[in-house]
Amino acid sequence: MNAIELLLQRQSTPILTEPAPNEADLKTLLSAGMRVPDHAGLKPWYFHVISGQGLQRLSDIFVEATTLDMANKTGLIEGAGIDEHALNEKLAKVAKMPFRAPMVIVISTRYVEHNKVPDQEQLVAAGCAAQAMQMAAFALGYGAMWRTGELAYNESVKAGLEIEEGNEIAGFLYIGTPTKEPHIKPAKDYQGNVSYWQ
Ligand SMILES: Cc1cc2nc3c(=O)[nH]c(=O)nc-3n(C[C@H](O)[C@H](O)[C@H](O)COP(=O)(O)O)c2cc1C
User: Fold this and answer.
1) Could you give the percent of the chain with pLDDT greater than 90?
2) Does the beta carbon of 147 lie inside 6 Å of ligand 1?
3) Residue to substitute in 62, 108, 131, 146 for testing ligand 1 pocket (most ligand atoms within 8 angstroms of CB)
4) Whole-prediction pTM value?
């Protein structure tokens, strides 16, 4: 697959199974992630590569963060008790999330103070890294899906991953092998998103 085919055909794969990228392919993914546009060469990102037992650790972090969140929210509403059923349903759901693929790469920022490079640019660069790794995975025959959701913005999740205060999770990149031949989505028309100044 050449680069243009890759860019024009890329799409996400929500359902993924084993195998995860092997060691050589993972190196390629991470190298692609490091290769992105990077104002002042700050490398303002960090990758947690999570697989095997690590997925259970991530699941535990999700469960703990959700429990805390529910307790805090309930505490804010005077007299409201915890809805055990709703809590258990939610916990069961978040506990399963990391197992949607055999590998998850968490892409977070590692902001560097710089007079010419605001945090906004550094977050964009971290996003580019996520995209580059997804493209590399696709080119190597794997499937991947970039997800966030409320847990990406949860302070306990960030703490569990030892992401330094003030930083952000740009995404959870789920990577594995597609379970079936993908249905190719039609291309999006660009006409409404472009203007030409000539
Ligand atoms: C920053 C970011 C966060 C995303 N978070 C989610 C998510 O939490 N859940 C989800 O279903 N899709 C999420 N998406 C969208 C999917 O990754 C995917 O792009 C979308 O399902 C469209 O599919 P496609 O990539 O095949 O066009 C996110 C995309 C980005 C860029």
Assistant:
1) 88
2) yes
3) 146
4) 0.96
